[in-house]
């Protein structure tokens, strides 16, 4: 039957990749298949996996891989039919095989053979199409081997086994029965493999492999590598020269874009009907994208939000963020006198949450999370003049301040004010310092803890009468004169 005539037994315990030729490619795999030998079921091949390669069809039996697995060369397939199945009948693919006897074809794909001209022993593992010529001298594979010679020299009177009847359809047909589906995908892969006819493609190694042996082959390989390197270097230099020619144009275009964006921002900021927070206007998303793209090209511009992908490492990113925040707080050195400048241009102390909100408004869509903002604060003194540092008050409020609002400087200034002008209320001190009343109270409490001032708590003790109306008094602050004295315990 067709199985005995056209197939070749293989060891199914070996992985399919090891059974393939060097120039063979696995195309599709489908399990749950049964085999029909002609029109009858092959009882030994009713549950297995079929692999389609560029040159062969492999059947790997599910139960007895070593003894019931086989391969079929696709060169024997002359026609295919597809049956989609009906009711309980499973889909089937019919392979009509060629009439010629495949036993006459050389199937020594995994065997080695010695060339009659150069005596080179060609290695095994090549497909029949690749093994037809010698790898060294391209001499064709001898068509007759010793076994065939002996078979031909046998007496003509020796009885021979009757050949199979070519007219018998069953001897030239195999069916694949798909018990678990996948028939359409498999049939498409089969048709593609048959259409490719990879078994007829003979590698052209006459002009190349012959020079790969010996010293001449090594020298030719070195020369080819050198030529390839020279060609690559030449192409790279040409690209570099073209880039250098265009570099001036790129810089000019970047400058023009920057001028347009800056002019647009300045026009909006100077508009008398614009928002009060014009100094921290949010840039449009398109403008931010343009500035970021030009920065990635190495064309640095002013007012460009710094992002992590522009920097080499995280430390450089933190330093650039600190420089950007310094410009937000104190204003750029190039800011004109008519501009409002930075957030702390006229303020010596500011709350940390206000700084974070204003910075993110200025950055547009490239927002900075609070965790990153807190990591930038320690780097800020290196990029500010006068130095801006952070400070946490007793209530937990975190602020940024200039040197005049440090603990010692603020205490000295308050003591001097009280010594010259006498006691002052909290409101009066807040007006004098230009800060909020709540922040003034926070800082005065710290000065009081240091013993530099003392309070006259008029809220609960002293009442003043104005226009026949009782008004609660306010806390007044006095300079502490009881410094350097030691109480002896006597009244």
TrEMBL record:
Q: Which GO MF term does the entry hold, naming one?
A: ubiquitin binding
Q: Which residues form the GLUE N-terminal domain?
A: 10-206
Q: Which GO terms describe its biological process?
A: protein transport to vacuole involved in ubiquitin-dependent protein catabolic process via the multivesicular body sorting pathway
UniProt main location, coarse: cytoplasm
Q: Which InterPro entries match?
A: GLUE_dom (IPR021648), PH-like_dom_sf (IPR011993), Snf8/Vps36 (IPR040608), Vps36 (IPR037855), WH-like_DNA-bd_sf (IPR036388), WH_DNA-bd_sf (IPR036390)
Q: Where is this region: Disordered?
A: 141-167
A GO term from the CC aspect: ESCRT II complex
Superkingdom in the source lineage: Eukaryota
What are the Polar residues biased-composition ranges? Answer: 151-163
Q: Subcellular location, in the record's words?
A: Cytoplasm; Endosome
Q: Which UniProt keywords apply?
A: Cytoplasm, Endosome, Protein transport, Transport
The family assignment reads:
Belongs to the VPS36 family.
What does this protein's UniProt record list under function? Component of the ESCRT-II complex (endosomal sorting complex required for transport II), which is required for multivesicular body (MVB) formation and sorting of endosomal cargo proteins into MVBs.
Q: Report the protein name in the record.
A: Vacuolar protein-sorting-associated protein 36
**What organism does the UniProt record list as the source?**
Lentinula edodes
Q: What is the lineage of its organism?
A: Eukaryota, Fungi, Dikarya, Basidiomycota, Agaricomycotina
